[in-house]
Amino acid sequence: MTTIPAGKVNLLGLTQPEMERFFESIGEKRFRAGQVMKWIHHFGVDDFAAMTNVGKALREKLEACAEIRGPEVVSENISADGTRKWVVRVASGSCVETVYIPQNGRGTLCVSSQAGCALDCSFCSTGKQGFNSDLTAAEIIGQVWIANKSFGTVPAKIDRAITNVVMMGMGEPLLNFDNVVAAMQIMMDDLGYGISKRKVTLSTSGVVPMIDKLGEVIDVSLALSLHAPNDELRNQLVPINKKYPLDVLLAACKRYVARLGEKRVLTVEYTLLKGVNDQPEHAEQMIALLADVPCKINLIPFNPFPFSGYERPSNNAIRRFQDLLHKAGHNVTVRTTRGDDIDAACGQLVGQVMDRTRRSERYIAVRQLSSEAQTPLAVANRN
Ligand code: SAH
Ligand code: SF4
């Protein structure tokens, strides 16, 4: 039976099966899904009139009941090192950030999943913004769509600028599960962006039940934000650890990568904070903790932001930490800071979140003790 939907359906965020169901629901053939997805994702089209292999009658029908709408681009900045950053406004009115990092022949897009974040890790500027909203699947895949269009590569699958996607922008992706999974499915679909499952990575601070659930529905790569090698310290830095401590967390991560097979491993992210988690004893504890976890380690020197209360360790301290892990047989890389001049580094993504948790008031109160309190961000969050 044909049911024309009441409001316009945004086709941007539909996975292939959802798109097929949509066409069936308006009395059309399922193969239309593939045609339209290619126009949207390969050619960056947002106008049905441009879909030349779709007949006029269907185009008119689509115009009446559907739309292709990405988040609004508020700004696009290009750094001297080629890094790009977009600020986009989502339906809730908040702004989130997307970052593109070209490096060693790869192009990695760092995508946001929520406006703000409820998890309040102590060293993360997104956490300081509090939480406003989950992004829709269209708003998540829309960040890939916008970035891809900015490179003008048509069709997107040939000579592609975006080779990898990491769900490491603003927000905790596992707390916006369905929308993040749908968007990642479109990233991997040949009718979408055709990115291999190994090159789509979800990063989590450790929402244990959702790690298991993720393994049941998708096979993307997994990164764990570890940041501390013992529960006492991790409880302070990553508060969700109080709910899901290290033993249950690492067990869930091991289950996830074991299910992937094919010698795939967990990425362990570890933000180095001077004098807090960067001492040799921390490296030793980490070696013991990860002894039976198939993983590679990515050290992230802390990226400072105003009034964080933390500092980045010296290069010597970073190298010493890396050496200790390396000598124990670990594959360890240190993430270089990119896009410094446009505030695009990990943990510097603030967007402009309309905090519903009121948590940002605490942060702003600290900032107001200083004469620098009248920053645009502080003002925006207060309003
Ligand atoms: N919420 C998810 C993904 C987004 S954060 C998570 O926590 O994994 C992406 C990475 O940047 C995480 O490992 C996070 O802990 C780290 N990060 C956050 N703030 C940082 C900062 N100021 N400097 C360096 N890394 C930071
Ligand atoms: Fe949220 Fe990740 Fe930041 Fe923690 S590090 S507050 S989970 S975005």
Rg over C-alpha atoms, rounded to the nearest angstrom: 22 Å
| Overall outline | globular
Secondary-structure element pattern, one letter each: EHHHEEEEEEHEHEHEHEHHEHEHEHH
| Low-confidence spans | 369-383
Helices, by number, come to 13
- Kindly report the CATH topology of the largest domain: TIM Barrel
**What CATH architecture of the largest domain do you see?**
Alpha-Beta Barrel
Average pLDDT number: 90
**CATH 4th-level superfamily of the largest domain:** Aldolase class I
Number of domain modules: 2
Largest sheet: 10 strands, mixed
- The amount of helix comes to 25-40%
Instruction: Give the C-level CATH assignment of the largest domain.
Output: Alpha Beta
Bound small molecules, which ones?
S-adenosyl-L-homocysteine, iron/sulfur cluster
Indicate the proportion of strand residues. Answer: 15-25%
User: Biggest sheet: strands side by side, in what order?
Assistant: 3-4-5-6-9-10-11-12-13-14
Distance between the termini: 48 Å
The number of strands is: 14
The helix-and-strand class reads: alpha/beta
